[in-house]
Write a structure and sequence with these properties.
The chain crosses the membrane at residues 164-183, 190-209, 215-239, 267-288, 294-318, 349-369, 486-507, 519-539, 551-572, 607-626, 632-661. By secondary structure, this protein is mostly helical. It has 4 domains: 1-36 and 184-326, Multidrug efflux transporter AcrB transmembrane domain (Multidrug efflux transporter AcrB transmembrane fold, Up-down Bundle), CATH 1.20.1640.10; 67-143, no CATH class; 347-371 and 483-665, Multidrug efflux transporter AcrB transmembrane fold; 385-480. It has 25 helices and 8 strands. The chain has helices spanning 2-10, 12-35, 47-59, 77-90, 131-142, 149-156, 164-183, 189-210, 218-247, 252-279, 287-296, 298-322, 335-346, 348-363, 376-380, 385-395, 413-420, 453-468, 476-488, 491-510, 514-539, 544-548, 560-588, 593-622, 628-660; strands spanning 68-72, 95-97, 113-118, 145-147, 406-410, 426-431, 440-446, 472-474. The chain has a 4-stranded antiparallel sheet with strand order 2-3-1-4, sandwiched between helices. Helix 2 packs across helix 12 (298-322) and helix 23 packs antiparallel against helix 24 (593-622). The chain starts with a helix and ends in a 29-residue tail after the last helix. The relative contact order is 0.12. The model is unreliable at 672-689 (pLDDT under 50).
């Protein structure tokens, strides 16, 4: 760190020039990198995925692409044939079956008929981006209504995706407001400059990587929003320490040296911890998550590099000038957080008990978590004709699972159909004409939505029965089940890897055995609380209509929990490292454990709260995306950050440090740190250890 600081101080202008050139190149590369991202969710080697791939290659549609349904409120055989003919003419190559051909597509009361359409799939994020507008026009002419999973998503605006630039600007504006309050001067611009340089540089690297391998579209949001929060976090920590050193009479160069030697060290280890948690995704046998892992680790890596090189150069060149009108003092200590820290340390066991009780209560719903896609009812609650039509489908008794049927690929459709017909929860089945290979498709759908517990169980029974006949099984339900097996079946290895590497890093950073173990346990509790409250909101339906104006999804999207773990584990560990590093420093300066804890809370409280608020605003921005899956992800991340920055970091962590006393500092073969005379005496509890 000393050598790096010396280099930056001596070559500050060259450092600024290098970052300026890189950022400009990143600005050029960003839109090109975004355009080169892929929407591939492949699961090589998984039975359901491989079957879906064969179905799409053989029949040109289907597999993991759900059917489009045309709902006829005035069914008649001649109308069904006319609608089917109009669709076939408008969409050559589409597979079409109507209620005139399949009695199972006509309701028992004869008042609702369904025409099932599998359009040709087009490359891109939406398989029916070209077909849906045409089908909507045909439906209007034939006086029927378009619905189905894709139509429901399009109706809610989810197919429009999100403009990453707009989301980043929104998050940056919120961050600027917070930073102006924190610094009370134009120094608020400094962390934003670091974030801009980090994000643009990362996009430049990702653009290069897209020429070598497929990178998931999810990466663009992580680079922009997670990058914004992380880079500002690191810059905020260093700038705050730099101002404090100036206030103690140091020259700008001395202040930079001391800030990097202390806060810079914390930033380095925090960044490595975040990178490790994201890099662990590479161990999963899922290509798109692997791409998120090896590109996601660039976010903290580049942010740390910018914080340790670009930021010191900016502080030396323009720091004093930007620190105007200097409405806040240079001392980072917060009187509010000193009072909180004192109260927590004085009542340590009460604080521990209260915090753990709250966190366990928040985490309890996670025991009922169900992974899957949002239900029809949730998507329909946003309103529109597609929502009304899918509700009619359900109430007509045709089976809500028709929107996501199980597809059986077989050479003997009669045997497969007989094996699944009559199974509990199965509504009906229909057979498509044989394909060019001689194999046929049997579509089987459940009475309940496959995103519900009953529907998922029925789909699993269908899969087991069909595979017992030698048939292959695909469709969305099979794809989701395979995803859960591929990702969460290997989660133990990933978590073990993260825990081991993180523990070793924190042992090196904190020079303790107890503090890293405590930090990991608290992180696990914090993650459990984030998962639990997300399940309570989105799966159980408490507050979704009030907060998001739609019904509960009744399930948590399959990829959300692993993504939340990767991001929150690292981001939450940032706050632990910031707090514990400062407590460690105060203890090394000669303060007793209790006093060091109060000082650590008081001197990091405002900083961590501000950093958490900035990330919270970034995730709130992400929650404005109309896609339900993204809303669920943003909810978990936003609530997880707030829980960690308040209950865990503000109460539980300092209370446990105070409760453990001398045990915090034990480490085998530990070299005794040099003791310095404490600059203050403010032991919050007589006899503090």
């Amino acid at each position: 760190m000393e050598r790096l600081t010396r280099f930056v101080v001596l070559h500050r202008w060259w450092v600024l020039l290098a970052w300026m050139v890189t950022a400009l190149a990143g600005g050029f590369a960003a839109p090109r990198a975004t355009a080169a991202l892929t929407y591939d969710f492949s699961l090589p080697g998984q039975r359901g995925y491989e079957t879906n791939r064969v179905i799409k290659e053989t029949f040109g549609s289907g597999g993991d692409a759900a059917p489009v349904l045309l709902i006829d409120a005035h069914p008649a055989p001649e109308r069904a044939r006319r609608v089917a003919a109009a669709v076939e003419q408008a969409l050559p190559g589409a597979r079409v079956l109507s209620y005139a051909d399949q009695a199972s597509l006509l309701s028992a009361d004869g008042h609702t008929g369904v025409v099932v359409v599998y359009p040709r799939i087009t490359p891109g994020p939406e398989p029916y981006a070209a077909a849906l507008p045409i089908l909507t026009e045909v439906a209007a002419q034939q006086q029927v209504t378009v619905t189905g999973k894709d139509a429901l998503v399009a109706q809610s605006g989810g197919d429009q995706g999100a403009d990453v630039l707009v989301e980043t600007i929104f998050g940056g504006a919120g961050a600027l407001i917070v930073l102006l309050v924190v610094f009370g001067s134009a120094l608020a611009l400094m962390p934003l400059l670091i974030a801009a340089g980090s994000i643009l540089t990362t996009f430049l690297i990702v653009w290069g990587l897209t020429g070598l391998t497929d990178i998931s579209f999810i990466v663009q949001f992580l680079l922009a929003l997670i990058g914004l929060g992380v880079a500002i976090d690191y810059a905020l920590l260093i700038v705050t320490r730099w101002r404090a050193e100036l206030g103690h009479g140091a020259s700008p160069e001395q202040a930079v040296n001391r800030a990097l030697a202390t806060a810079g060290r914390s930033v380095f280890f925090s960044g490595v911890t975040v990178a490790v948690s994201l890099a662990a995704l590479i161990a999963l046998p899922v290509p798109f998550l692997r791409s998120v892992g090896f590109t996601g680790l660039l976010i903290p890596a580049i942010s740390v590099l910018a914080a340790l090189t670009l930021l010191p150069a900016l502080l030396l060149v323009a720091g004093r000038r930007l620190d105007w009108p200097h409405r806040r003092g240079t001392d980072p200590e917060s009187r509010l957080w000193r009072r909180i820290g004192t109260a927590v340390v004085r009542h340590r066991w009460i604080s521990v008990t209260a915090a753990v009780t709250v966190l366990v209560a928040l985490a309890t719903p996670v025991s009922t978590i169900r992974l899957g896609q949002p239900t029809n009812a949730s998507l329909a609650s946003t309103g529109g004709d597609a929502g009304t039509a899918v509700t009619r489908l359900d109430t007509a008794g045709l089976g809500a699972g028709l929107t996501t049927p199980v597809e059986i690929l077989t050479r003997d459709p009669a045997v497969a159909g007989e094996a699944v017909t009559g199974l509990p929860g199965v509504a009906a089945a229909m057979t498509w004409p044989a394909g060019p290979t001689g194999e046929s498709l049997v579509d089987v759908w459940t009475s309940a939505d496959t995103s519900t517990e009953k529907g998922a169980a029925a789909a699993a029974r269908v899969r087991a029965a069909a595979e017992a006949t030698g048939a292959r099984v695909g469709g969305l339900p099979a794809g989701d089940a395979d995803f859960v097996d591929a990702v969460y079946g290997n989660a133990g290895w990933v978590i073990t890897l993260i825990v081991v590497v993180t523990t070793l890093l924190l042992m090196r950073a904190l020079r303790s055995i107890v503090l890293p173990i405590k930090a990991l346990i608290l992180n696990a509790i914090s993650l459990g609380a984030a998962y639990g409250i997300t399940v309570w909101i989105w799966q159980d339906g408490h507050g979704t209509e009030l907060l998001f104006d739609q019904r509960a999804a009744a399930a948590i999207t399959t990829w959300v929990p692993i993504a939340v773990f990767a991001f929150l584990f690292g981001l939450s560990m940032d706050y632990e490292v910031f707090l514990l590093s400062r407590i460690r420093e105060e203890h090394d300066n000669g303060h007793a454990t209790d006093e060091a804890t109060v000082h650590g809370v008081a001197r990091t409280g405002r900083l961590v709260t501000s950093a958490a608020l900035i990330l919270f605003l970034a995730f709130i921005s992400l929650a404005q995306v109309p896609t339900t899956e993204v809303k669920i992800l943003a909810t978990a991340l936003a609530l997880g950050i707030i829980i960690d920055a308040t209950i865990v970091r503000g109460v539980l962590a300092p209370a446990l440090v105070a409760a453990l006393g001398r045990a915090n500092w034990w480490a085998p073969h530990r070299r005794r740190a040099p003791q310095r005379t404490p600059t203050r005496t403010a032991d919050p509890k007589p006899g503090g250890r």
